[in-house]
Amino acid sequence: MLFCCLPLFGTYFECISMTFDHQGDLVMNTYTQGTRPVIDHNTIELREHVRRLRREMTTAERILWGELRANRLDGFHFRRQSPICGFVVDFYCHQARLVIEVDGIGHDDQKEYDAQRDRFISSQGLRMLRFSNANVLTNLNAVIGTIRKAL
């Protein structure tokens, strides 16, 4: 089971408990909890994990970050290696509610996990884009065009 808290209006948070059934399908229970999140995902371990991921970005992630950082893409602000719903996503634009993932060869072995993760993140009203490392490295203009259309 996974717990996630998302900011709603003002200081209220929507907190979600998430479980997967034996077939890997997502089952959720949603509730709202007052003025602060029930589960604090801003733990020291999570912050250290995010810092490590930022230091150890792949070449493809670094190249894409060079195009997204500092509001360079049509004035949209992106965060890199951002915690969202208990997951760390490669890039996130809050204004457009857009998550971008750049997948290396390690993702070939975790397609089912990635699909479950994508379904859950999408169920929260966020849109997902996935690109392979090779696609970013060899066809950056097309990747940027796809992101621009999604914004």
Task: Based on the model shown, name its key terms.
2 domains, four-stranded mixed beta sheet, globular, 34% helix, Endonuclease, Chain A, 151 residues, three-stranded antiparallel beta sheet, single chain, alpha+beta
What does this entry show, briefly?
By secondary structure, this protein is an alpha+beta fold. Helix content is 34%, strand content 30%. The protein is built from five helices and seven strands, in the order E-E-E-H-H-E-E-E-H-E-H-H.
Helix content: 25-40%
Name given to the CATH homologous superfamily of the largest domain: VSR Endonuclease
Residues in β-strands, percent: 25-35%
The CATH topology of the largest domain turns out to be Endonuclease, Chain A
Give the helix tally.
5
Average of the residue pLDDT scores: 76
Number of strands: 7
The parts where pLDDT drops under 50 for at least 5 residues are: 5-17, 26-40
| Helix-and-strand structural type | alpha+beta
Give the total of domains: 2
Q: What is the C-alpha radius of gyration, as a whole number of Å?
A: 16 Å
According to CATH, what is the class of the largest domain? Alpha Beta
Spatial order of strands in the largest sheet:
4-5-6-7
Compressed to H and E, one letter per element, the order equals: EEEHHEEEHEHH
Major β-sheet profile: 4 strands, mixed
At CATH level 2, the architecture of the largest domain is 3-Layer(aba) Sandwich
Mass-distribution shape: globular
Task: Please report the distance between the alpha carbons of the first and last residues.
Answer: 32 Å
